[in-house]
Write a structure and sequence with these properties.
Blueprint (H helix, E strand, L loop, with lengths): L7 H9 L6 E2 H8 L3 H14 L2 E4 L14 E4 L4 H10 L1
Antiparallel strand pairs: 1-3, 2-3
Helix pairs in contact: 1-2
Length: 88
Amino acid sequence: MKKLKFSGREAAILRVIDFTTGTPGAEIMERTCIDSDELLDILNGLLDVGYIETNPITERVSLDHLLDTIFEVNPAYAHDLRGAIARR
């Protein structure tokens, strides 16, 4: 498995997401204080590579649904993600 590296904002978002139950987009925005457009770009990037998933399941999240969507860590990457964000 290759070593995962994240930007500071990506790591901050991953730290906010609850690894067991997921976290709503509104809470992620509130706790990270990242602008909604930038947050949306980062979340969609993490979705594209498969590190996170959404509930309800979507391929990309739009600004209209950002606050209501639950973001969850993909269980296949959970162990590696914990290690990657702990190293920062």
